[in-house]
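User: I'll paste a sequence; please echo it back and then give the predicted structure.

Assistant: Echoing your sequence first, then the prediction.
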Amino acid sequence: MWKRVLFVLALLIVLSSLWYSSIIVNRISKEERTKVQLWAEAIQKKANLVNYTDKLFDKLRNEERKKVELYVEAIKRLTNPDPNFNPDYLFLSKVVTNNTTVPVILVDEEKNIKTTRNLDSLISSNEDSLLKQLVIMASKYEPIEINYFGNQKDFVYYKDSQLFSELQKVFKDLEQSFISEVVSNAVSVPVIYTDSSRTRILAHGNLENRKVDESTMEEIIMDMSQENPPIEIELTEGHYNYIFYQDSWILTQLKYYPIIQFGVIGVFMLIAYFLFSNSRRAEQNQVWVGMAKETAHQLGTPLSSLMAWVELMKAKNSDPKMVEELEKDVARLGTITDRFSKIGSAPVLTQQNMVEVIKHAIRYIRSRSSQKVKFTIQHASTEDYLARVNIPLFEWVIENLCKNAIDAMEGEGSLTISIGEIGNQIFIDVEDTGKGISQSQKKTVFQPGFTTKKRGWGLGLSLSKRIIESYHQGKIWVKATKLGAGTTFRILLNK
């Protein structure tokens, strides 16, 4: 009964814990997803700002290009006036001189530098520096061609103005700040920020437990995309970067916490059950030992008296047959007393021939059993079956099995004891033709108190199991049984 109560209580604890843990996990998961969504919206707004800044720089870049083209047109008209057109030289000169921001270099067809404007004085005064600047300008923008009469050509090279470059640097810092904020403000969730191809990682965060490199990147991104759809960030028109994320480590731990908790509770219950069973078994052993010792003590006084009466009967020349039988019974009581006195102490084991031990064990029972019970001892080998046993205790086991068999056969049938070898072990089978044992009772026949008799304590088989397994390091079990056909008990002993 207590086992069922303990199991029900443990089940209620586990179910309550799982239910409550599930509620906490779902609540935290919802809150975490809400935070991620709010963070993603804030990131998108920052991305819009970055996108707007990029468009603004495109406009500024186009404006500087137009300014350079206007500068080129003014130079062209000043150096190569059209006879059909009366130019305003003052206005053209003002156009040329008003370009105070965009660095330009005017060269001829042979790449000879003719003039410069808005370059640093240290650069404009050094030919090598000017050539380096020319290479830089050529790598950034296509030069603007100036055609003169007579097929003469000049070229104007230019680069971004100082103001534009500084603004562009601010823009790069803003973009880098945006990327860093994607990672640093990732609400404690593992996050990866990739380019539009989803193959190049721009930044990542909260991935302390995972190595991020080319060999693991694809696997990590796939894991994240399966758990949560990526967030698109439009930095420029039609150009998307992606944010991949997954649940935080704390939430992942909480998901597996109920399983771990269940395992811990299960281990705790197993330990508790093991300790309780051992405590109960130790208490039973103490009761058994105490009862056995007390029985041996109580038998000692009347046994001594009976022995004295036997000697007195011999002295008075009483009926020899009666005296002989009385001596056998007194010797039997002495054996029983000796057996009980050995319970609870380490018995002395000696090497014995099991055939002779079993013959001696059934001799007393055979003489006091019904003539309708046929006793048979079988053994295939003519050699001795040697095992280390304590004779009084082992004979007690054989007597218990034989008595139960005779009771099951109701005083009529066949009782066969077979002795043989299996590897380095000796087996003893005690087979009867009695009423058998039901399958449901096979596992309980060795429990203290189990009995099918109207009168009996149900200690014989339990005591036999203790003697074989605890004292002789052997085994005993119900080998076979069938209702109405009989039962076979098997004992295994080490050679």
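The mean pLDDT is 77. Residues 81 and 87 are 7 Å apart (CA to CA).
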